[in-house]
Amino acid sequence: MKIQHPISNPGAALLALGCTLASANALALDPTLTNPAISAVVDGYYQSSDRPMSERTEGFGLGETELALSANIDDMFYGKVTAVLESSDGESEINLEEAFIQTLAMPAGLSLRAGRFMSDIGYLNNQHLHTDAFTDRPVAYRALLGGHYFDDGVRLDYLAPTDIYWSLGAEAFKGDSMHAEDETGSREFSNLGVFTAYSKFGGDIGDAGSWMAGLSYLRNQNGRFMPHEEEAGAEEAGHGHSASYTGENTYAADFVYKWAPQGNYKYRHLTLSGEYFRVTGLLSDEAPAAGAKRRQDYHQAWYLSGVYQMSPNWSAGLRYGELDAQALEADEMQSQKLRETELSLGWHQSHFSTVRLQYTHQQGANFDGITDDNILTLQYVMSLGAHGAHQF
Amino acid sequence: MLCLWGLTVRINSKLAKFAAVGLTLAYTGLAHAELNVFACEPEYAALTKALAPGASVYAATTAMQDPHQVQARPSLIAKMRRADLVVCAGAELEVGWLPMLQMKSANAKVRSTEEGLFFAADQVDPLDKLAQVDRSMGDVHAQGNPHLHFDPQRLLKIAQALSAKMTALDPDGAAGYQAALADFSQRWLAAVPVWQAKAAGLTGKKVIAYHTSFRYLFNWLGMEQVADLEPKPGLPPTSGHLASLLKRAGEGDVLAIIVASYQDRRGADWLGERAHLPVVMLPMSVGGNDQSRDLFGLYDSVLALLNGVK
Description:
The complex is a heterodimer of chains A (about 400) and B (about 300). Chain A is mainly beta and about 400 residues long. Helix content of chain A is about 5%, strand content about 50%. Chain A has helices at about 10-25, 140-145; strands at about 35-45, 60, 65-70, 75-90, 90-105, 110-120, 150-160, 165-175, 195-205, 210-220, 250-260, 270-280, 300-310, 315-330, 330-350, 355-365, 370-385. Chain B has about 300 residues and is of the alpha/beta class. Chain B has two domains: about 1-195, Nitrogenase molybdenum iron protein domain (Rossmann fold, 3-Layer(aba) Sandwich); about 200-310, Nitrogenase molybdenum iron protein domain (Rossmann fold, 3-Layer(aba) Sandwich). In chain B, helix 6 runs antiparallel to helix 7 (about 175-200). Chains A and B meet through strand 9 and strand 10 of A and helix 4 and helix 5 of B. Chain A: This is Zinc-regulated TonB-dependent outer membrane receptor. Chain A: InterPro entries: Porin_dom_sf. Chain A: Keywords: Signal. Chain A: It comes from Shewanella salipaludis.
């Protein structure tokens, strides 16, 4: 799915992009085609050791450096392009994370999106990484959705004309990043691989509180693992944007609750959120290992997170997440477990700059040799250019 | 409280019917489909209510909430989905949330100012427009100060334009909108000289205030904001900055320290205690205190509070 262009001279490319930024009016008023909203996110970190299924590695590194351009194309279409520069193992790549158009004027609360975009399943998935309160996505996302699931496809969304917020949506995607592990590289995957359906509800509780809850389903045609006859090795915890653990059906439930005194977000606010994922249909029926002893034929992951903005300058977050996944080892499904407890402290000079210190405690069982790890991460995330309006 | 009008109408449609009977007595001839109006701030909810008494009006924020920092929350998306008209201050005040609501609400009617979108700042000439804006200046608006509703002249112009907008969207209600505008204008024009007479003693008075929230009020009354509790627009008061304000207050010519109903008064209290200056919390909008039930009550209350410190 990724279009990767290893660039021979990433410095020059960045410089060119930087010049584009500087020449445009950074605080574009009403974005138009001649004056689109342009923004960039810079993200850098130091981490004390590696984390599984994460793009952040030990030592100094850059997270996703993001450049985004968006505008209304005309009275019917809105367009957005987000390029992400990533560097890992000394190589820089430009990936397109978003390149989509969306309708603005369809009747009856309908809207259509096409191109490459982030799926609307779950709560966190359609949020940009730089708005997160932690340095990495919860283990549920890293293991089951490759961090965040974006892909090439289409979406139809319907917003009901009800007093309570109620939306329904369906998506179809190519699904390359959701392929099951292919040991021999000879498997023919369907190129219309992923279908999703979701529904979200939301409302207010008085002036101070607001909530949203969602249910999602993801069908992955290429999600069943088809073991090779001779050697059926354990699944490798992969890097990049590909899901490490796949299956045919993913069921997800999510909620978020936000609170601010009298609903005033200027000084203090609290965000509580949680999601639960269950992935079933792990093995192909035709697979020789189908008869293998299956103690548990599903992956399961969840997290709970609380983030308190205690003043305009300081925020603190606590998150706990678990992954209980299955991997085929010697014709037998073996359970792999990872538990993460994370504590983050953020300092914000303004809405646009964050310096974050995070402590992560990982406990693993049969998981890449992780038993009891402590990780410290120091990160900055800053955005420049146009004010982006954030999602709830 | 006005900010709850929309809610009341929604939850208690029976109650609303009783209320509607009262309104129908005052404004007969409004028996047609009423506009569904989404107001970004309570001052524009109050103005819309005065200009379209039969309309269903929902205020997205209260006077206790900073309109710069609002969550594009699900309830607002649902409200905007069904709106015929969206009324906001404009001048980029809502830039952090309105575009997201428009995108998510998938309501073509309220996308463009040519149709059901109305920006108050487009109708008048805002103060403090800036040719060049840079993030290092803090949260400033290139299109000028958007807290327009404390200028009675500008507000009347906005009222006229809003009435015309509602007439254009709902021609059947034209007679009703005209009658309501005439009634509002008459009461407003009668009230302004009374307010000015009440505020005569405030002319030339100097204050320290939080943000440029009351820029238009001070401009109208001939008062002067000699210092800002914020070191830069949008940034909270720092101890170093407060120390410099204490020095400024020491010159002895400052009447009071002014904060708005959604602003933290701790910095103001710290300064007030040390400089022996009164701290006055003014309602930022309708619903900001018990007296501010509508725009008239808001002006009355603000002037009474300011006169109280003399």
